[in-house]
Amino acid sequence: MVLPTLTVEARTSALRRAIAVRQERAELLADIKDGKVSLHDVLRRDDAVVARTPVRRVLEALPRIGKVRAGQILDELGISETRRVQGLGVRQRERLLHLFPSQG
Prior knowledge:
This protein has a single domain, classed as Helicase, Ruva Protein, domain 3. The protein is built from 6 helices and no strands. The protein has 104 residues and is mainly alpha-helical.
C-alpha cells in the first residue's frame, strides 16, 4: 500500500492535531493521578482521547498503582497489555470498577 503524499500544510495540520491529542491525554492522566477524575469517569467517557489511551497507562495513573501492579491487574483480569480503553468489553469494565470501587 502506497501512502499518499501530503502537502506541507496537511503535514503541519496533522502534527498540530497529534500534539493537541497528546497534551489532552497527558492532562487526563495527570487528573487521574491527582484524584480529580475517577476510573468510573474515564470508562464512561466516549471521546477519541480516552478511547485511544492504553488501559495500562490509565491503571498506572491511579494512586498507589505502579507498573508492576498494573501488569498484575491486567493479567488477573485477562486484559491484553496493549488493549486500549475503546477495546474493553462490558465485563472487563465491570471487573475493573469492581476492583477499584473507591475509584468508581
